[in-house]
Amino acid sequence: MSEPLLKIRNVESYYGPIMAIRGVSLDVHAGQIVTVLGANGAGKTTLMKTISGVMDPEKGQIIYDGHEIQGLDPYKIVNHGIVHVPEGREVFPLLSVNDNLTLGAYTRNDAAEVELDREMVFTYFPVLKARRNQEAGFLSGGEQQMLAIGRALMARPKIMLLDEPSLGLSPILVQEIFGILKRLNSEQNVTMILVEQNAMIALNLADIGYVMEIGRIVMSGTAQRLLQSEDIQNFYLGIKAEGAREERRWKQKKTWR
Amino acid sequence: MEIFQLLVSGLANGCVYGLIALGFVMIYKATEAVNFAQGDFMMLGAFVMIGFNNAEYLGLPFAVSIVAALVVMGAIGYLLDRLILRRVAGESQTSVIILTIALGFVIRFVVGLIWGHEPKSLENPIIGQDIAFGGIVLGLEDVAVIVITLLLTLALYLFFQRSKLGLAMQAASQNQLAAYYMGVPVKRIQGFIWALSGIVAGIAGILFATKGSVDPTTGLIGIKAFAAAVIGGFGSLPGALLGGLIVGIIEPFASRYMPAGYSQIAPYALLLLVLIFRPSGLFAQQRNKKV
Predict the structure, then answer these.
(1) Where are chain B's structural domains?
(2) Can you give the residue ranges of every domain in chain A?
(3) Is the pLDDT of residue A238 over 70?
(4) Shortest Cα distance from B253 to chain A (angstroms)?
């Protein structure tokens, strides 16, 4: 296979004295959707923040298209074409939908092209067009998530970092948003790194999966292979094997004691 | 008639309070720090203007002096952020507050050293002129202050709503982290906001000096402006201006219709009432985040 678009090598990041990611390496090839799975506190979000430059790694390299980008200022990383769609949407609540999108294109200076991209975002998310003059704080959770994705698209990203886009959304909305992500990947050729707790839907969308636990990658492979792995089925997909029922009975007893 | 005159002079004072309050709120929203030197900024702006304009100093033409004074104030705001405040970014609120209070003292004494401690007034083309119509006599300077504040408010509104830089400033103040994610160079934007608040303070200072004399302790009305910002709802720009106007209007009415001395208390009494009954201020902008 060709050289990966993004190479992460032995990255370590700290929150103060606490080591949140402990030597993570992963590869992302152009056009792929790579998902990073893991429980709360596994370090997924930290990994995303380290890539987008909001956190600086203590060690390791992040190589994008031949350039080392670890520790650069966030706006330089956006300029390289890596845009972060943060966990919890983080729209600008008092600004209109339109202004939120305008800010997504903050690093660009080609006004005419930006307007074309705004129309492109509206074709993927028609609801945003209908609400373009409303304050973003008044949108529903699903609409805010769409706005967060649309806002990131305005930067014309090569790589989009998606941090739990399914968070707090109804299953139907999650299906809708993941359907749009799939289309963006194939139609606009946006490479994606997707962090998820909802392993089933993430593995169904992604090409490659990595599993993180307490700051390390513990498993990786094609999404297909991970879907069939017994460990993943037990712990991330909640598919019950014989042994799991035993454990469940033990748990119940404990609760009632 | 008397009421109308009180209203106009109150509004004129209120405009100055409002502009100082605006500076407080702009910096607070963008950097989450309260700049307690904002009143002293205003006073410094007045003296810089006097320094450029008055015959005993440089004696430049009035219009040239205004431009020069505002450029200097913008530069001072930017450099303060760049050289001093950026170094304490991330420290506790208290240390930033203490730092800005200290900065206020420094400004007061530096001004005293350069221009002396006596009250000075700005030589200006409209001093002491009145306009009279329908039995009302208004000081021209009061009317000018109100008109200029209105124009400045309009200009700031357009800047924040229409320009990309203004939008980025709003974004950085509403959600700093998201602004970083969008590629907004937040630190640089904060520097610009300090520059802008320096300019606004400069305008407030020029307006203040047009209405009367200033001395290095004039900056202490910053405390009243801070009260105005809280009354209006700390964190809301229109609220800051309106809070300033309310405080400005209360004063002359309190001194006319209440026993002597109460006019000084009135704004703070209102502050207490607002804090008790509407703690987020009269015109607070708040949205709850959806989860």
Answers:
(1) 2-218
(2) 6-256
(3) yes
(4) 36
* Chain B residues whose beta carbon lies within 8 Å of the beta carbon of residue A89: 290
Inter-residue contact B237 to B30 (CB < 8 Å): no
Work out the average pLDDT over B26-45.
Answer: 91
Instruction: Look at domain A6-256 and name its CATH class.
Output: alpha beta
A71 touches chain B (CB under 8 A): no
Q: Where are the beta strands (DSSP E) in chain A?
A: 6-15, 18-28, 33-37, 59-64, 67-68, 82-85, 159-163, 191-196, 208-213, 216-222
Find, in chain B, the residue whose alpha carbon is nearest to that of A140. B290
- Portion of chain B with pLDDT greater than 70, in percent: 98
Whether the pLDDT of residue A248 is over 80: the answer is: no
Note whether B183 contacts A92, CB cutoff 8 Å.
Answer: no
Of chain B, the percentage scoring pLDDT greater than 90 comes to: 67
B163 touches chain A (CB under 8 A): no
- pLDDT(B128) > 80: no
Question: Which helix (DSSP H) or strand (DSSP E) does residue B138 occupy?
Answer: strand B136-139
Chain A residue whose CA is closest to B286: A94
Taking contacts as CB-CB distances below 8 angstroms, the residues of chain B near A153 are none
pTM, rounded to two decimals: 0.86
**Cα A21 to Cα A39: distance, rounded to the nearest angstrom:** 14
